[in-house]
Amino acid sequence: MQDKRCTLYNVIFPLWLVLFAPLFPLVYLPVLLVNLVIDAGVIGAALRLLKFSLPGGALRSYIFKAWLCGFLADFLGVAILFALADSSLMAPDSILTIWNNPTTVVLHLLTIALVGALIYLANRRLGTRAGLPAAVAHKVALAMGIITAPWVFLVPTSIVPFLN
């Protein structure tokens, strides 16, 4: 039986993986806090624009759960991109320079759309469970799905000096 080995040459992780990799533990806390502030800001602004409010405890619980669901969706997006990068669908160095290959750009955009849709679905469900009317929950979830989708997936790591 033949011995199958997988050798990886010059593997450089994408910038967005820094958010999830244990290589930079000091990055965790600021990233988590900034993400929480962004999620709270989007939910708060959407509710203000819709002239609707939730009691303090329900709002905090909704924001915290939305924040956790957003991270889970982002992890899924990272896993999808790694699976695609390992497949024959993407060019070998496409993770580093996504804008050099149209197929890679389309796959990244589809992954971002999928993650955004998952964020929308999770937030719509969380919003209705928190006591928001269905129409309000839909609009808040739509704002969360669009604004907090992982747009940073489009940043090529080739422009980051310390990753090259």
Provide a concise account of the structure shown.
This protein is mainly α.
List keywords for this structure.
164 residues, mainly alpha, 4 helices, 0% strand, disordered N terminus
What's the structural blueprint in terms of helices and strands?
Blueprint: H1 25-49, H2 56-86, H3 102-130, H4 134-147
Helix pairs in contact: 1-2, 1-4, 2-3, 3-4
Describe the structure.
- This protein is mainly alpha-helical.
- The chain has one domain (28-163).
- The chain is 60% helix and 0% strand.
- The protein has four helices and no strands.
- It has helices spanning 25-49, 56-86, 102-130, 134-147.
- Helix 1 (25-49) crosses helix 2, helix 1 runs antiparallel to helix 4 (134-147) and helix 2 (56-86) packs antiparallel against helix 3.
- The chain is elongated.
Radius of gyration: 18 Å
Mean pLDDT: 82
Q: What's the helix-strand series?
A: HHHH
The domain tally reads: 1
Residue runs with pLDDT of under 50 for 5 or more positions = 1-15
- Taking the alpha carbons of the first and last residues, their distance comes to 38 Å
Secondary-structure-based class equals mainly alpha
Strand runs, count: 0
What percent of the residues sit in helical stretches (DSSP H or I)?
Answer: 55-70%
Report on the biggest sheet: none
